[in-house]
Amino acid sequence: MFEVSTTLTSPLLGDAQNSQLMIIDILRHAIRRHPQQEIVTRRLEGDIHRYHYTDCYQRTCQLAHALTKLGVQPGDRVATLAWNTYRHVELYYAVSGIGAVIHTVNPRLIADQIEWIINDAEATWLFVDLSFISLLEEFAPQLKTVKGIVVLADPDQQPELTHQRLPIYNYERLLDGQPTEYNWPVFSEQAAAMLCYTSGTTGNPKGVLSSHRSTVLHAQAAASAELLDIDSDTVLMPMVAMYHVGAWGAPYAALLTGSKLVLPGAGMSGADMYELITQEHVTVALGVPTIWLTLHNHLHANRLQVPTLARVCVGGAASPLGLVRIFNERYNVYWQPIWGMTETGPLVTSAPPTAEIMALPLEQRYAIQTTAGRPCFGIDMEIFDLDGQPVPHDGVSSGELKVRGPWITGSYFRRHDPDIFTDGWLATGDIAVIDPAGYMKVIDRKKDLIKSGGEWISSLDIENITSQHPAVNECCVVGVAHPKWDERPLLLIVPNGNTLLHKEEIYQFLEGKIAKWWMPDDVIFVDSLPHTGTGKLIKHELRKKYFNLFME
Predict the structure, then answer these.
(1) Which domains does the chain have, with CATH numbers?
(2) H or E segment at 508?
(3) Active-site option among 41, 104, 198, 234
(4) 438 vs 512, which has greater pLDDT?
(5) DSSP 8-state secondary structure symbol assigned to residue 381
């Protein structure tokens, strides 16, 4: 547990130069140290594109000139609807480099939500990938502040757009002929750099505005041995989307350390992942559990291996013990848990494969791999009871998780939420425990805890155990109304392949592993479960669908 440190009223100041932490300096550093390192992209045009860091820098300079000619001003929000591609990387650096704000928008939301987000951000320009053109036409006429649209495509692939109110440009034509050097301005490191909206499963998303300082500090932490542990020998493939809190900072951390960066574009299938991993010799990959379930299903169905892949860094949802075990025992891949939120920058905890962890007996190691890991340098983390008091770090006592640090947001964009931001802490909404060694484990979301007969049931614990059944592909537990006990757990299961499962098998598997009163009142087998665009289970849809199941 942490005590609040005392602040000196009149400290003696040091004599170090007061240089500003600028995002563009990450790319400038990259071309000084690793000019020939590669960025590889599966393009929407259908081919594999590769170029060096030096090429990326020159095109970023060209883009900065183009943005300036378009009239983009410091502080302007420049929105993107785009996949993980080299063009998107160029936008990351050029937009923030000239003092504007890169505003990544989740294209998997419905058109009304996208329209709301872009209007809420008051974006001035919108850059769009080819695959989102039809989606664009659903909401473009309703955009209030956007001055023009730029299509991220080769000139010969430029589509015809039906809406004529906004001018339409081609990305490559904008860059063509522009100078390959740019006089990057220096301004306050506290200036806004990136605007991301939460992938909340209820209500309108909330904006999180990061600064140059917070982004650079996060990149340094993310690259460190305490989080992603990457260097110039790493081949990094972020399967987490660049529209979701900056692909967990991968485009910054990779270039900071000189890692080869492999970008999947729209190729999210198991076959696409396998092809890139094997062809580009990927060593570390990032993504939510569902993406690695997709990869496993492809590997298992085709009896394939991924020998170069050493680690998958997994966040966005709890790590199921079944998948942790499968990736180790079938593929010799270390499942590395990480934890964070859009509001936390995002990465703050992890459990990399240290010598200490790898020396543990397998079951003890697996137990650590299903936690969220330990916080990195710069992050304070605490759990609080309902009275706002810290609870012991004994691995048993639970409370709401709160965090603070130099890349944790202090407020939402244009919103006042005093219940979430209090006394310098961010209240995460996660219910967690911290053990004596400092490992944090989320046991549920506050909104997902099941209150049965006045006692709490953890849906994540039941899901974690169920995931270990060899015939279970994916599972989800929700609390639904009950006439006597207020709420009772309902277990939904997606079976493996053509496997025929029976409720009795699941109940037998759970017997002795959970308390009897935690046993789900029913087990329903389904073809699929609903997910957000970032891979999180949408539990509120399932609660709504099955809410009265036990009331009838």
Answers:
(1) 19-37+51-210 (3.40.50.12780), 375-445 (2.30.38.10), 450-546 (3.30.300.30)
(2) helix 503-510
(3) 198
(4) 438
(5) E
